[in-house]
Design brief:
Elements (H helix, E strand, L loop, with lengths): L13 E2 L5 H13 L13 H14 L6 E2 L1 H13 L11 H15 L4 H14 L7 E2 L6 H7 L8 E2 L6 H11 L13 H14 L31 H14 L1
Antiparallel strand pairs: 1-2, 3-4
């Protein structure tokens, strides 16, 4: 999703509000991929899209926040290309996955060492130390999942558990894959990488963002578990995060 075909056709500055639906949706998907929360990419211009673009301009491309032009489109495209999940990253080994998670965090705006440490700790815990995308209750059968999970077929998959059809639908345009039609695509390492970091950044999983618990003023590794799954195993995961932080 880093091509920005429609936006690349812009030849001069123009108000964001006058972009056609295809251009606006492309812009929304791009901003969402970088962790600027604006809801579903519907191609409609509203306050969330206005705020997300203004925030991006402030962070990356200073200028009139109501305008979009070739220079700011290029900056957006360059930032998207920096995401490991935008390309074909080497995710074949544990060390490679850890490096990719660190880089994905940085580009999506999860930049504090403590924040990255907690994302890594979560991936380690959720994948049973393997850093390989897994299915929910991976040690049990598909028949078990069919009979026991009320959100079947949209049970948890990934480096962290993506669940419910609405979340599969939300992420489909962001990763460029129809996850609703093929939920197992969420197990693709590139997709799982993006969802892991983006969920922490935006609070999609539980409504809680990582910045709610880990920011410049505090580091609450225990309650940061609420971004994923209440307080389940919160203390154990906090200890893993402390280990990663001590290595940074």
């Amino acid at each position: 999703m880093s091509d920005l075909t429609n936006l690349s056709a812009i030849t001069g500055p123009l108000p964001v509000a006058v972009l056609d639906q295809a251009g606006l949706r492309e812009l929304q998907i791009g901003l969402s991929r970088l962790g600027y929360p604006l809801g579903d990419p519907d191609g409609l211009f509203g306050p969330k899209t206005r705020s997300a673009w203004a925030e991006f301009k402030t962070d990356m491309s200073p200028g009139n926040p109501d305008l979009i032009g070739p220079d700011s489109v290029l900056v957006l495209q360059d930032q998207l290309k920096k995401l490991p999940s935008s390309g074909t990253p080497d995710l074949t080994t544990k060390d490679a996955v850890i490096r990719a998670i660190r880089q994905e965090c940085q580009v999506q705006g999860i930049g504090l060492a403590a924040q990255i440490a907690y994302v890594l700790a979560t991936a380690q815990w959720e994948t049973n130390q393997t850093f390989k995308p897994v299915k929910e209750a991976y040690w049990l059968s598909e028949d078990w999942r069919r009979q026991n999970l009320r959100y079947y077929r949209y049970y948890g998959r990934g480096y962290v558990q993506l669940t419910w059809e609405k979340n599969y639908a939300f992420y489909s345009p962001l990763v460029g894959v129809d996850l609703v039609d093929d939920p197992d695509s969420a197990l693709a390492p590139r997709v799982a990488l993006f969802v892991l970091v983006h969920g922490f950044k935006t609070g999609i999983f539980t409504g809680r963002k990582i910045t709610d618990y880990i920011n410049a003023d505090k580091t609450d590794f225990v309650n940061a578990r609420r971004c994923i799954n209440g307080t389940d195993r919160a203390t154990e995961i906090a200890k893993i995060a402390e280990g990663y932080l001590s290595q940074s």
